[in-house]
Structures are given as C-alpha cells and as structure tokens.
Design a protein that fits this description.
Blueprint (H helix, E strand, L loop, with lengths): L9 H4 L8 H24 L10 H10 L11 H9 L1 H7 L3 H11 L4 E4 L9 E6 L6 H14 L5 E7 L23
Parallel strand pairs: 2-3
Antiparallel strand pairs: 1-2
Protein name: Phage tail P2-like protein
Length: 185
C-alpha cells in the first residue's frame, strides 16, 4: 500500500508502548497539524519548475531574486518567464558569445552573432544580425542595454544589422536579337 506524506500521522510511527500514553497522543496530533501545514506549503518552495504558473508580480520578485540584470517590468509576460527560467544558465555562460546568442533568441526571437574574425575586423568586436521585423529603434536600445549585462567586457558591439526581405511581384523579360553585320565595298 502506497502512502503519501499527507496520509501518515506520527502516532502510527511510534512504538506500541507509546501509543497508549495520552500525553504522547496529544503531542503527536499537535505535531501532525503543524507538519501537515508545512507539507501543504512545500509546493510553494519549488519555484523554477512552476515559473509558467506564477503571477506577474511574483515573476518580478523572482527576477530580482535570480538577479536577471536585463529584466524590465514593461516586457510581456512570456518574455519575463523565459528570462527568469534562463537566469541561472545565463549567469553560468555570461561573457561568452553563447550568452549573447541566447539573449538575441529571447528578446528578438531570431538572430546570430558574427564575431570579428568572421568578417575580418579588429579583434574583440562583433555584430548582430537579425531579420525580425518587430525590431525597432526602441527594441534595439532595449537590447543594447541588456547586451551590456551578458557580453564580455572587452568586446564591443560594432552594429546591429537588420536584414529585411520583402515579398513582391517580380517580372523579368528578355529579348534576343539575331542578325549579321556586313560591309560592302
């Protein structure tokens, strides 16, 4: 028979000679009440796996607790949840190109980091390339502020390149002319 922590009481765990004592019975019932209240609150201690279920206010507190440097109260709820979930991992990889790439994915949804040796520039420089259409000047300023918290201190952002692709009708035509050129004298 399988029992949970909520089903067991202390009196059942005591030896037979102690189960008859009225003082022990009263004490074990009192301990059971306190222990049951504590066991019911144990789910609230498990925070990270429940980030998807917590309120915005608690997300703000968790962001402060987990030291999410680039957290902003104006962000949408899903972005806040993602930042809080990734906070421990981001602190482990802070200062690496992977941290910058993870930040790009979280804030812009897509993009890549191109380092100085990829485009033959001065050492310790990099640029970010994204094709997300929602990137505006405000979002870029937000990203640069957040970027300063995860990038290597010696590295410098060259530029943010926004790749834009448009869907349009393209008509192509061609002409072929044949003929000869002759000169008579």
């Amino acid at each position: 028979m399988s029992r949970t922590i909520h089903d067991v009481n202390l009196l059942e765990l005591l030896p037979e000679n102690l189960r008859q004592d009225p003082d022990i019975i009263a004490a074990s019932k009192a301990v059971d009440l306190g222990f049951l209240a504590l066991a019911n609150e144990a789910d609230n201690v498990i925070i990270i796996p429940r980030v998807d279920d917590v309120s915005d206010e608690l997300l703000d507190h968790l962001a402060y607790y987990f030291h999410v440097d680039f957290y902003d109260l104006a962000l949408d709820t899903e972005t806040k949840r993602s930042l809080v979930k990734d906070s421990v991992y981001m602190h482990q990889i802070k200062g690496t190109p992977l941290a910058v790439k993870t930040l790009i994915t979280t804030l812009f949804g897509e993009g890549e980091v191109s380092e100085w040796f990829d485009y033959e520039d001065t050492p310790y420089r990099f640029r970010i390339i994204t094709s997300n259409e929602s990137v505006t000047t405000d979002r870029a300023a937000e990203f640069i502020r957040a970027l300063d918290t995860v990038k290597n201190v010696r590295s410098t952002l060259d530029r943010v390149i926004l790749l834009q692709s448009e869907k349009m009708n393209l008509y192509w035509g061609g002409i072929v002319q044949g003929g000869n050129y002759e000169i008579y004298r």
